[in-house]
């Protein structure tokens, strides 16, 4: 066993593809490794250099935006719109509190994800898929980019498209069936409201982004990060930007999310009842870089499991031919378009093919 990722990557007898296939064929994911009692992280998960988990850097605080009272107070609404605008221009991220989704629903959703991943192995295997062709049901695997990415992430995930055509209840797994339908209905309402605020932050009509179809599709990912015996050798989720318009993230109390801001990785400590919102690549594209899709990652942890639920506002998994480009109203002679027109499907296919390799997918669409 190699002592670190560098020696593992250059070992002549290391057949990475064979080890990836062997891991994939178990259909038990990272959780299966932990259940088997491993004490060392397998080589396929090794980073090129160890992750610095305790770097001492200045404290930077992600903006937290309170949506309380915004519905019936125009002054408060304008304040919140400015806060959203400022956060998306600089961080590309913010947290929201008093967003209208009860804590009981948030907790039940996290429990549903945990229960899905912790159900009997033979039952869970029935949901395992690698090609992700059927977007109308939950499909689970470990690392969507297992054979493309340079490093395997210490994470298992289930995926389901919940809008515009939600699955029938019987098509969803029992551990998360009812709560998945309830949670996504409320997330769709919150997302629609946020798109109104974001539109106004751009100086546009409140319905501008909604009329463009930004809230037409929703994909939900239920992530499960098992405890890791050597967290410094691997990563929970490699640094990346999201391939959507916005993401609404529910994370549990474990923590581990980091955002790349002002040339350093900054922690996003969990706040009970809060939801993390971030701009995706397509929001940066249509706003012509006015709002930024920031790199973020999740570190591995000896404590676990960590559970999170990422709701992606996108129609990229659905055969829709709608073409997106920078919004005309945001362009001028002094501010020409920086991106070519593209479909969400094109972006998603490029993103999935290259995997989480550390390079921004948006560069592919630059003019």
From TrEMBL:
- A family per Pfam: DIOX_N
Keywords in alphabetical order = Dioxygenase, Iron, Metal-binding, Oxidoreductase, Vitamin C
Q: What is its EC number?
A: 1.14.11.20
| Family annotation (InterPro entries) | DIOX_N, IPNS-like_FE2OG_OXY, IPNS-like_sf, Oxoglu/Fe-dep_dioxygenase_dom
| Primary enzyme class | oxidoreductase
Q: Which GO terms describe its molecular function?
A: desacetoxyvindoline 4-hydroxylase activity; L-ascorbic acid binding; metal ion binding
Domain (Fe2OG dioxygenase) ranges: 216-316
List, alphabetically, the PANTHER family matched.
1-AMINOCYCLOPROPANE-1-CARBOXYLATE OXIDASE HOMOLOG 1-LIKE (PTHR10209:SF884), OXIDOREDUCTASE, 2OG-FE II OXYGENASE FAMILY PROTEIN (PTHR10209)
Family label: Belongs to the iron/ascorbate-dependent oxidoreductase family.
- Specify the protein name: Deacetoxyvindoline 4-hydroxylase
Species name: Helianthus annuus (Common sunflower)
The taxonomic lineage of its organism, from the top, reads:
Eukaryota, Viridiplantae, Streptophyta, Embryophyta, Tracheophyta
């Amino acid at each position: 066993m190699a002592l670190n990722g560098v020696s593992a990557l250059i070992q002549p007898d290391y057949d990475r593809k064979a080890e990836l296939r062997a891991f994939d064929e178990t259909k038990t994911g990272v959780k299966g490794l932990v259940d088997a009692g491993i004490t060392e992280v397998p080589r396929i998960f090794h980073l090129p250099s160890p992750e610095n988990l305790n770097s001492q850097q200045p404290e930077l605080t992600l903006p937290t935006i309170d949506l309380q009272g915004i519905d019936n107070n125009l002054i408060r609404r304008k304040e919140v719109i400015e806060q959203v605008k400022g956060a998306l221009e600089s961080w590309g991220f913010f947290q929201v509190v008093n967003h209208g989704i009860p804590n009981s629903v948030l907790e039940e959703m996290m429990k549903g994800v945990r229960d899905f991943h912790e159900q009997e192995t033979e039952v869970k295997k029935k949901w395992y898929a690698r090609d992700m062709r059927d977007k109308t049901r939950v499909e689970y695997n470990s690392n969507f980019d297992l054979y493309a990415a340079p490093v395997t992430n210490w994470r298992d995930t289930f995926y389901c498209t919940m809008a515009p055509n939600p699955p029938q209840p019987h098509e969803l797994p029992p551990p998360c069936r009812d709560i998945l339908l309830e949670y996504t209905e409320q997330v769709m309402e919150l997302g629609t409201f946020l798109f109104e605020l974001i539109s106004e932050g751009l100086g546009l009509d409140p319905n501008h982004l909604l009329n463009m179809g930004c809230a037409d599709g929703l994909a939900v990912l239920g992530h499960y990060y098992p405890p890791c015996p050597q967290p410094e050798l691997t990563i929970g989720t490699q640094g990346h930007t999201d391939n959507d318009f916005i993401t609404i993230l529910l994370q549990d109390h474990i923590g581990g999310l980091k955002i790349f801001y002002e040339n350093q990785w900054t922690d996003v400590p969990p706040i009970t009842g809060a939801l993390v919102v971030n701009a995706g690549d397509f929001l940066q594209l249509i706003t012509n870089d006015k709002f930024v899709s920031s790199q973020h990652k999740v570190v591995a942890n000896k404590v676990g499991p960590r559970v999170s639920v990422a709701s992606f506002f996108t129609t990229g998994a659905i055969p829709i031919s709608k073409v997106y480009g920078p919004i005309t109203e945001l362009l001028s002679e002094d501010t020409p378009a920086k991106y070519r027109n593209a479909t969400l499907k094109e972006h998603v296919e490029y993103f999935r093919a290259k995997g989480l390799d550390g390079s921004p997918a948006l560069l592919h669409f630059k003019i």
